[in-house]
Amino acid sequence: MSTALPTSHEALTVPEVMAALRLSRFKVYDLIRSKQLASFKIGASRRVPADALHTFIQDRLREAA
């Protein structure tokens, strides 16, 4: 699994988000359930918009400052 965030993808899979944030599947789904990380479903597949991931990271950085 690649650890680099795919820059050409507009929507990321949960495993891609897991790799980018170095978090477990449970934690990524917990962030989605708690509305901290935006996502959407296509059929049974869950996707996270790349912009939502970048916003999530920027928000965490602002909180830490």
UniProtKB/TrEMBL annotation:
A UniProt-annotated Pfam family: HTH_17
InterPro entries, per database record: HTH_17, SinI_DNA-bd
Chain segments annotated as transmembrane: none
Domain Helix-turn-helix: 12-60
The protein's name: Excisionase
Source species: Streptomyces thermolilacinus SPC6
Coiled-coil intervals: none
Lineage top rank: taxon: Bacteria
Single GO MF annotation: DNA binding
